[in-house]
Amino acid sequence: MSFPKIEGYVVTEKLGSGSYSTVYKAITKVGARSTVAIKCIDKSRVKHSGAAVDNLITEIRLLKTLTHPHIVNMKQFTWDDRYVNNDTA
Ligand SMILES: Nc1ncnc2c1ncn2[C@@H]1O[C@H](COP(=O)(O)OP(=O)(O)OP(=O)(O)O)[C@@H](O)[C@H]1O
């Protein structure tokens, strides 16, 4: 199985998948070598669904503001030609 190439990270395994995304375990290449979960949302799968795009924008907006011990903390949000990437720890 091949994993996506995400700048700054070594992707080590697949953790799970949802309707529009696949979540991978990854390690940062520089600094503390932190372990993170990266949710890769496949743009080709959401682009035909207005509701999916709205849900994605809502999820990212909420994750940016929420701080709670039982909710993953979004550290970074990036995108490339194929994926929108949510990096959580
Ligand atoms: N931070 C995380 N750490 C470990 N595993 C995770 C993490 N986030 C997601 N996963 C795994 O990836 C799966 C898919 O997560 P994702 O958030 O994409 O979809 P979902 O919300 O479960 O489903 P849907 O998008 O269909 O509503 C989860 O069911 C879980 O197994």
What do these coordinates show?
With 89 residues, the chain is an alpha+beta fold. The chain has one domain: 2-Layer Sandwich (Phosphorylase Kinase, domain 1). It is built from 2 helices and 5 strands; from the N terminus they run βββααββ. A 5-stranded antiparallel beta sheet has the order 1-2-3-5-4. A hairpin with a 3-residue loop joins strand 4 and strand 5. The longest helix has 16 residues. The mean pLDDT is 88. Bound molecules: adenosine-5'-triphosphate. Adenosine-5'-triphosphate binds next to strand 1, strand 2 and strand 3. It catalyses: L-seryl-[protein] + ATP = O-phospho-L-seryl-[protein] + ADP + H(+); L-threonyl-[protein] + ATP = O-phospho-L-threonyl-[protein] + ADP + H(+). GO terms for molecular function: ATP binding; protein serine/threonine kinase activity. It comes from Papilio machaon. Keywords: ATP-binding, Cytoplasm, Kinase, Nucleotide-binding, Serine/threonine-protein kinase, Transferase.
How would you sum up the global shape? Answer: globular
Q: Supply the CATH architecture.
A: 2-Layer Sandwich
* CATH topological fold name: Phosphorylase Kinase, domain 1
Strand order of the largest sheet: 1-2-3-5-4
Structural class: alpha+beta
Estimate the strand proportion. 35-45%
**Top-tier CATH class:** Alpha Beta
Taken in chain order, the helices and strands follow as EEEHHEE
Low-confidence stretches: none
Number of helices: 2
CATH superfamily annotation:
Phosphorylase Kinase, domain 1
Rg, please?
13 Å
Enzyme class: transferase
Keywords: ATP-binding, Cytoplasm, Kinase, Nucleotide-binding, Serine/threonine-protein kinase, Transferase
Catalytic activity: L-seryl-[protein] + ATP = O-phospho-L-seryl-[protein] + ADP + H(+); L-threonyl-[protein] + ATP = O-phospho-L-threonyl-[protein] + ADP + H(+)
Protein name: non-specific serine/threonine protein kinase
